[in-house]
Specification:
This protein is mostly helical and 133 residues long. The chain has a domain at 41-131. It is 69% helix and 0% strand. The chain contains five helices and no strands. The chain has helices spanning 9-28, 42-61, 65-88, 96-111, 120-131. Helix 1 packs antiparallel against helix 2 (42-61) and helix 2 (42-61) packs antiparallel against helix 3. The longest helix has 24 residues, at 65-88. The radius of gyration is 16 Å and the shape is elongated. The protein starts with 8 loop residues before the first helix and ends with a helix.
């Protein structure tokens, strides 16, 4: 697959790594923000979407399949590691279901790479370029 020329690639990389850092932070602080909207297993939806977002973000920056698979393995390992670290604390719990939701988010984005999700940043840059005089 051809490397995409993203004009704002350093910015996109910085945002991506801030997203990863935020997930680590929120998952390891003793008292994370609680969102209760009355939906069963809503926390699993948050796990799924967080890992799908990270994977989807970096897929756009690294179009080579091998690199994407390395990121996928890294994000899956990250989700497993965080769960084990949470299990060591007193205020957080180790949950296999969280690991599964994280991994499912990563794999889902790998499957959706050839849809519009795979080029959102490129489309955003094109839109930005078309609006600048």
């Amino acid at each position: 697959m051809q490397q995409q020329n993203l004009q704002y690639r350093p910015l996109w990389l910085a945002i991506g790594w801030l997203l990863v850092a935020y997930v680590w932070y929120v998952c390891l602080i003793p008292n994370p923000p609680q969102i209760d909207i009355g939906i069963s297993f809503f926390d699993k939806i948050i796990h799924f979407t967080s890992y799908a977002a990270m994977m989807g973000w970096f897929m756009q920056l690294y179009p080579a399949l091998r690199t994407r698979l390395l990121y996928a393995a890294g994000f899956i390992a990250m989700g497993i590691s965080i769960e084990f670290l949470q299990g060591l604390g007193v205020s957080r719990m180790f949950e296999v279901a969280d690991m599964l939701a994280n991994g499912l988010g990563v794999v889902t984005m790998l499957l959706f790479v050839n849809t519009g999700f795979g080029s959102l940043l490129l489309k955003a840059e094109q839109k930005i370029s078309n609006t600048n005089p």
